[in-house]
Amino acid sequence: MVIRRKEAKDYGTKKLIEGAFKEGDKCLIVEDIVTSGDSIWETVEALNSVGVKVTHAVVLLDRGQGGDQRLKNRGIHLHSVCTLSKALDVLQKAGKIETAMVKSVADFIAANPVSPTADNTAPSGLSSGDGQSPQKKQKKELSFGERAGLCSNTVARRLMEVMEAKRSNLVLSADLTDSQQLLQLIERVAPYVCAVKTHVDIVEDYTADFATRLTQLSDTHNFLIFEDRKFADIGHTVSLQYERGVYHISDWAHIVNAHTLPGPGVVQALKQVGQAKGRACLLIAEMSSAGSLASADYVKATVKMAEEHKDFVIGFICQSKLTSDPTFLHMTPGVQLEEGVDSLGQRYLTPDEVITKRGSDILIVGRGITKAEDPVAMAKRYQEAGFAAYLARLQ
Questions:
Q1: Helix and strand totals (H; E) in the chain
Q2: Dist. CA 351–CA 31, nearest whole Å
Q3: pLDDT at 83 over 60
Q4: pLDDT digit string (tens) for 291-346?
Q5: 123 or 223: whose pLDDT is higher?
Q6: Is the dihedral of CA 302, 304, 308, 310 positive or negative?
Q7: Is 93 helix (H, G, I), strand (E, B) or coil?
């Protein structure tokens, strides 16, 4: 066995490399954790300096930040017993940590890759585990206006511009069944929202005139229309539901959403109908109801599907930030000014928890506004709370 010391002692052999070896021997390096691989490479260089050759290394835990590729580029093959993502998945399935924590760590890792060539220190908030000293690395949080400039999708860009202009990241979930009451409510709270979310199939007296008047309100008060249709069928059926039937959703809704359970065909079908009309889609990665079956693997597959259809998919319905890509928007339902759970298992989080701590972008608020004695005053409160949480995150 050979030992590499971090520094030579001033007694004994006074050498960095100690043990029973001779020039020309081959050595397998064993490390506990790898981030950038720098510690392993330093050991390789030290062993090479005394004639010992190294081509392989074993690590107990690979954080998955690019250290394996850096070592491979230098001729060292890394074999990991376990990866951080696998460890988190096991802990999450065993109920030891929450899904939100798994996604938070995964998002941090994705946002802090180690360059394949350059020497890096460990990212902020994590010690390197391979001989490096932690070094805080501040990443500038982009504003909605700055992110808008990065968007190629016109709907995503417009929504971010509206959010910046109106200083609002609030979406009203307008779940009323009477069309006149619904339109009146929307008109009253319109100055405080960036979008209005509808469930058109619960409107009991729906006519084509409703969609016309809703569109006029959208133009007058500068907000987007989000029809919460939650498409979840085969492509052919979805395309008919989106374009045809009674509602002709693709004619008036800027944004719709879809479950990813059917596979990419649901997105492709929606895109074939909506893209030419300048529409966009959100993918449902998580829901706010207790007992949701959306696993970590399901969330990961949903993000991948969104990345493959960035020309039409603009973000996610979720409980926390899922990706560091600034062109994707994260919308979180189930928000109230105080945390709680209703009688049907709907979980409520505060604006600060959702926006500042969990990294989401947009609050979706329904009964907190629609059931209030003064919906206008309450909408203003949510608008101010949501945007204040966003500004706190920027700082």
A1: 14, 15
A2: 43
A3: yes
A4: 667 678 889 999 999 999 999 999 999 999 999 999 999 999 989 887 655 545 55
A5: 223
A6: positive
A7: helix
Q: Which two tokens stand for residue 116?
A: 């394949």
Which residue in this structure is represented by tokens 């997105």? Answer: 267
Cα–Cα dist 358/104, whole Å: 8
pLDDT digits (tens, 9 = 90+) for 133-152: 444 445 678 999 999 999 99
Q: Which of 299, 331, 297, 295 is nearest to 314 (CA)?
A: 331
The tokens describing 228, both together, are 């919460």
Q: Residues in the chain, how many?
A: 395
Residue written as tokens 């996604």?
A: 103
Both tokens assigned to 297:
């693997």
Name the helix (H) or strand (E) containing 259.
Answer: strand 255-259
- Cβ-based burial of 275 (10 A; exposed 0-12, middle 13-18, buried ≥19): middle
Closest CA to 169 of 139, 145, 141: 145
Provide the residue type at 123 as one letter: P
Q: Which two tokens stand for residue 224?
A: 């987007």
Calpha distance 162→155 (Å, rounded): 10
What is d(CA 68, CA 70) in angstroms, rounded to the nearest whole number?
Answer: 6
Question: What kind and span of H or E run contains 79?
Answer: strand 77-83
CA atoms of 338 and 211, how far apart (whole Å):
33
Q: Provide the angle, in degrees to the nearest 10, between the axes of the packed helices 235-243 and 265-274.
A: 30
Q: Are strands 347-348 and 329-332 parallel, antiparallel or unpaired?
A: unpaired
**Band of pLDDT at residue 72, cut at 50, 70 and 90:** confident
The whole-angstrom distance between residue 66's C-alpha and the CA centroid of its chain comes to 20
What residues are labeled active site?
Answer: 230, 233
Distance, CA of 79 to CA of 73 (rounded, Å): 15
| First-residue to last-residue Cα distance in the chain | 51
H or E element at residue 59: strand 53-62
